[in-house]
Amino acid sequence: MRVDLFDFELPPERIALRPAQPRDAARMLLAQGSANIEDRIVRDLPSLLRAGDVLVFNDTRVIPAQLEGTRGEARIGATLHKRVDLRRWQAFIRNAKRVREGDRIDFSNNVTAIAEERLTDGSFVLAFDGDEPVEVLLERAGRMPLPPYIAGKRPTDDRDKADYQTIFAREDGAVAAPTAALHFTPELLDALDQAGIIRETLTLHVGAGTFLPMKVDDTADHAMHAEWGRIEADTAARLNAARAAGNRVISVGTTSLRLLESATGDDGIIKPFAGDTSIFITPGYTFRAIDGLMTNFHLPRSTLFMLVSALMGLDRMQQIYAHAIAQDYRFYSYGDSSLLLP
């Protein structure tokens, strides 16, 4: 499909630079099939679901994956995006033309790494020096990797250390937050429990590739970035049992959705999973694992807008986004939410 089919005009002032306070006070657009669009708030979620419905969350934790350093006199920026092993990470490099294989990059607070290998996409494998765990080094020298559409408008600060982390964050490894779950609070979780809504978690370490613009004119020519994920066997069994009982599985975020669909066969059975996924979902895809999606509002021409268009239909999503823009919804990572029930 042509990438320009997924374009739309978004006024810059619709991009949220801070999350709603409290988090569950964010607005939420409700779209059920072809029914009229409803304007709600996230706190309404328990009343919009049915007892027995299962919400699936991503428990990945964002690490301070952005580093600033030097190689000689050249200033170098690095954004880690995928772990290779205990001491090596793939990284996108700013000013990469000043870096050669074998060069040492000096980051702040005595953190150094060797640019071990340049990959075909232009990124590097960085091998960190020393014996301390890389996570410790990042806590010392790194900062939270805010999306470029926020970082380009204001500097990262201490508030982002909490704001850009979900209440479910447990497994270190993401360099972007699973932002649909940023809206959840202890009070909202209590209300969901009282309404009989079930919660399950999986892990998908979101990579910085999620923010890369598409550089092709046709979706068939796009190479999707790979991300590592895991679904435990008991989690898969409970999800299968819920669906067999006629209950809905609703993914909280596109990251959870992509991993669930990667783990599900043509028979509709969700299997345990541990490994990389580079699934790319566009209109025409048949969903096998999920019955709905809670998600924020996505970039024009992005793989994530293509995903929601596959779920609801492209014309329907253009209608939904036109409504959201006209009604002053806040977009992107710190923005408002939508509940999409095809």
Automatic annotation (TrEMBL):
Cell compartment(s), UniProt: Cytoplasm
Annotated gene: queA
Originating organism: Allopontixanthobacter confluentis
One MF term in the entry's GO annotations: S-adenosylmethionine:tRNA ribosyltransferase-isomerase activity
Pathway connected to this protein: tRNA modification; tRNA-queuosine biosynthesis
Domain of life of the native organism: Bacteria
Cellular component, GO annotation: cytoplasm
Reactions it catalyzes: 7-aminomethyl-7-carbaguanosine(34) in tRNA + S-adenosyl-L-methionine = epoxyqueuosine(34) in tRNA + adenine + L-methionine + 2 H(+)
Signal peptide (from-to): none
Physiological role: Transfers and isomerizes the ribose moiety from AdoMet to the 7-aminomethyl group of 7-deazaguanine (preQ1-tRNA) to give epoxyqueuosine (oQ-tRNA).
EC number: 2.4.99.17
A Gene Ontology BP annotation from the UniProt entry: tRNA queuosine(34) biosynthetic process
Top-rank EC class of the record's enzyme: transferase
Family the UniProt entry places it in: Belongs to the QueA family.
Subunit comment: Monomer.
Keywords linked to the UniProt accession: Cytoplasm, Glycosyltransferase, Isomerase, Queuosine biosynthesis, S-adenosyl-L-methionine, Transferase
Name the record gives this protein: S-adenosylmethionine:tRNA ribosyltransferase-isomerase
InterPro entries linked to this entry: QueA, QueA_dom1, QueA_dom2, QueA_sf
